[in-house]
Amino acid sequence: MTRPTGSAEDQVSPKTAAALRAAMTRLFEGSPQRTDGRLTKENLYKEAQVSRATMNRAHAILAEWDAYIAAHGKATPGEAKRDATIADLKSA
Predict the structure, then answer these.
(1) At CA 29, angle to CA 28 and CA 30, rounded to 5?
(2) Cα–Cα distance between 4 and 10 in angstroms, integer?
(3) Whether this model's pTM surpasses 0.90
(4) Does residue 8 surpass a pLDDT of 50?
(5) What would the DSSP string read from start to end of 49-82?
(6) How far lies 42's CA from each of 20, 31, 47, in Å?
(7) Is the pLDDT assigned to residue 10 strictly greater than 70?
(8) How far apart are CA 50 and CA 20, in angstroms?
(9) pLDDT number for residue 3
(10) What average pLDDT does this structure show over 67-91?
(11) CA–CA dist 41, 53 (Å, integer)
């Protein structure tokens, strides 16, 4: 599939891009407002209150999402803290 040239802001409105970025920030920080907080693209578009098709047109934002997930994994901040606590308890 060929992607259109240009940035995500060229593919979605500035308001939509801002909503997606705000939703991404809330999910990454572990403070979702509309979802269970899992780091999934389904939660991203639901958190931003846009359709999946609209989210899929935001290529640059999705690239940022994918880069973050690749670097940090899909564990939410709460899950990461829980896993660290479990690891500490097991090593004691």
Answers:
(1) 95
(2) 9
(3) no
(4) no
(5) T--HHHHHT-HHHHHHHHHHHHHH-S--HHHHHH
(6) 12, 16, 8
(7) no
(8) 8
(9) 53
(10) 88
(11) 11
